[in-house]
Structures are given as C-alpha cells and as structure tokens.
Amino acid sequence: MAQHKVNYTQNGGLPVALTSIDKIVNWGRSNSIWALTYGLACCGIEMMASGASRYDFDRFGTIFRASPRQADVMIVAGTLTKKHAEFIKRLYDQMTEPKWVISMGSCANTGGMFNTYATVQGVDRIIPVDLYLPGCAPRPETLQYGVMLLQKKIRANHASRAQKAKRLM
Amino acid sequence: MRAYKPKDNVQAKAYYTDRFFVSPQVAKFSPESDEVFAQDLEAIKSKFEVLDAYIQVGQMVVYIKPEDNFRVLKLMKKELTYTQLTEMSAIDWIAQRGGFEVFYQMLSMDKRKRIRIKMFIKKGEAVNSVEKLFRSADWSEREMFDMFGIEANGHPFMKRILMPYDWQGHPLLKTYPLQGDEFAAWYEVDKIYGKEARDAIGPELRDPAKVDRYDSERFARLGHEVPKGTKITGNEPKVVQNYQEDGGVFMIKKFDKKDSVVIDDPQR
C-alpha cells in the first residue's frame, strides 16, 4: 500500500471539498507565489539562501522566475540606485496582475545607510509596496515569514470581485 | 580612578568638526636616495620638463606638464618597464588652486617599483587620453569624466560610466552636495513620472534621526500589536503572531506538534 494514499474515509467518505470561488482562487494564488529574481545587493544573497535547500522556498510554492511576465511578486532585495529606478518601474509594469511587491531590507525600505545622491530613498517612491521587511540584511526566516504574511494578505482578498490595479500615481 | 568628565548633552556635541580632514604630510625624500628612481628620473628629465620630484612612502612622485602626459607615459612604458597603469584619476583642488591634479599610478613588475606621475590642469581644460597606451585607462578616463568633468582628448568613447547618461553634475567635485543637488533629488521622479508628479510623491526624507511625534501612536510594541487607531497606553497584552487565520486555511493543514515525530536517529 502506498505510503501517501489518500484516506477517503475522512471528509465524509468522498474526495470532495466544498468551498467558495474566493477561497479556491486565493488558495491557488497564495500557494504559488512566483517571485521575480530581483537581487540588487547583499539582501539578494539572503534571498538566494531562502530559495536554496536549507530554507527551501519551493515548499511554499515560491519559485524564482527570471521573467516579469511569469512573476507574481517582486522581492526588491537590495539598494536601488537612481540609475536603476526606471528599470524597476518597467519590470513592475511588465508583471501581470495581480502582483505584489516585497521591499526587503533597510536600503529598499528607506535608502538605508546610503544617504547619498545616487540612491533612491525607498522603493515606494517608484512602485507601490505591500510588505516592508526590516533588517540589514533580513535573515531568510524573515523573508519566509514575510511570504507567509503575504499569503495571508492574498487570502484576505475577494478574488471574485474586480481588483483595482495598484498604481503609485 | 579615572578623572570625572561631565557627560551631559554628549549627543548634541559634535566630536568631529573638520569638514575635510587634512592629514599630516609624510616625510619626503630626494629621488637621489634611491638608485632605481634616480635613473628613471634622469631618463624622464632628459626629454621632458619635470616640475618637481620626490620619494614618499617608497614611491616616487613626478610632476610633469599636462601636454607631455602621453609621451611621458609612453617613455615609461616602452623604455623604463613601467608596464602597468594601476590607477588614474583626479583630485579636486578648485577651491585652493583653481584646477585639478591628475595622477597616473604606474607599476613596474621588473623593477618592483611604483611611480606616480602627476600634473596640474586648470578647471575646464582637457587632458590627452592615454587609452592607446593602457587599456585600463579606457574606463578610468570615463570615470574621471563622470566624476570630475575632465574630458580626455582622443578617447574612443567619452561618455559617463557610473552615472546615467542624462545625469547633470559631477558627483566627486568637492562642491557637489553628498545628498545630491536639486536635479539628483528629483531624478527618478522626473524621469519616470514627470515633473508634475513631484507634489504627489513628495521630497525625499533625508534625515535618518527624524522622530515623528506620532510614531509611538502609529507603531505598537513588537509582539504587543493593537488594531489601527487604538490608543496605546503601554500595557497591551502579548499577541501571538499567526500567519494563518483562526478558522484555518482551505486545503492546508495546520502543523500539530502533538502528532509530529522528532527523528533523533542520525542513521535513520
């Protein structure tokens, strides 16, 4: 007998779960948050560690994609320079709705210690941010917890209703 | 016992006042004190005018005229075996002397010696490119142009290297503010959303020590969060952070510690 055989005797003896459209859509969305590979600085190393075997993002359904067309969430991991600002906006616009943004680390949140002429003082000057993660750099656990909170946020959405596109301006 | 020093208002006291620290000068020696350097200097002096030369921290510094720079570096590369240009850039002396000091740091692997060629140019003057002699000068001269605005004549691609092409100003000038001028402060907003978006987005928050008087109301203690708008008194009960809703999540089982097994056999 297979180890992981489904126990049909539970749930009333049928392989059926009754639910609402909202819940099933949100279940799908929240458990397949594909992230755009966006390591800009040292936070990117922590993001890579979160994706690697020890912390294992794949079990959350978070798989890093190299194309904005396939991504649901943009994890801005690192210092955003003013030269790069237009590209982050372009990549954000290329992502398909619904989309979310996690601002990871002090630099992405506020510019951090780079109080200089070349650093954007917070990515929320360019794109709307859903979740700010504190830390310099945040540990992989923080990012994992952030993704869990994002899942909670997605589940709170009414997926069947029309979504208003998030725009800064 | 240590002498008592009153410590009131240490936060307000500036412990560092020098805007630009002027380091004490290291002792300079005559080039004759080193055999190799003396010969090299003679070779340069025989063909070009040398304004000043000395040895400092084991390296010879030679001041030349700016129009000779390409030929001096060619002589050093071809005849004096200084085959590497390890670094080159400029120093801003506009306030003191009205121009820039451009330096070329040369290394000879054969002689195991380093020579720094220096020359002074006035503000707005260009230098001759040495890119044809040293490939490393390609990016270095572009960086020098980017950071100081000194152009190199004869460079194949005289454009900015670090800052964006449409940037205004040269950031390494001592007159350039560290936190950027008006153009730098609005660069990304102007470029992406246009100037009319300035009011909506607002200026950059540049004061890291800024304390908002609402901060203690808007942000609760970590682990003692309250709903938005609640008046914070300071003795809020502890809140256990959950990433799942109370009623459970559709199709997802909550981890139950009682039903779990701890595998402590490393040979399992």
Question: How many helices of chain A?
Answer: 5
Main β-sheet of chain B, in a few words?
6 strands, mixed
**Mean pLDDT reading of chain B:** 88
Helix proportion of chain A: 25-40%
Overall CATH architecture of the domain at 26-122 in chain B: 2-Layer Sandwich
Largest sheet of chain A: 5 strands, parallel
Alpha plus pi helix count of chain B: 8
Q: Topology, pairings included?
A:
The complex is a heterodimer of chains A (169) and B (268).
Chain A: H1 21-30, E1 35-36, H2 43-51, E2 64-65, E3 73-77, H3 85-94, E4 100-104, H4 105-110, E5 131-133, H5 140-155
Parallel strand pairs in A: 1-2, 1-3, 3-4, 4-5
Chain B: E1 28-29, H1 35-45, E2 50-56, E3 59-64, H2 69-78, E4 84-92, H3 94-97, E5 99-108, E6 113-122, E7 127-128, H4 137-148, E8 152-153, H5 182-185, H6 187-192, H7 198-201, H8 215-218
What would you say this structure looks like, in words?
Chain A has 169 residues and is α/β, with parallel strands linked by helices. Helix content of chain A is 30%, strand content 10%. Chain A has a single domain, classed as Rossmann fold. Chain A contains five helices and five strands. A five-stranded parallel β-sheet of chain A has the order 2-1-3-4-5. Chain A is globular. Chain B has 268 residues and is an alpha/beta fold. Chain B has eight helices and eight strands. In chain B, 21% of the residues lie in helices and 18% in strands. Chain B is elongated, with a radius of gyration of 31 Å. The longest helix of chain B is centred in the middle third of the chain and has 12 residues, at 137-148. The N and C termini of chain B lie far apart (62 Å). At the A-B interface, helix 1, helix 3 and helix 5 of A face helix 6 of B.
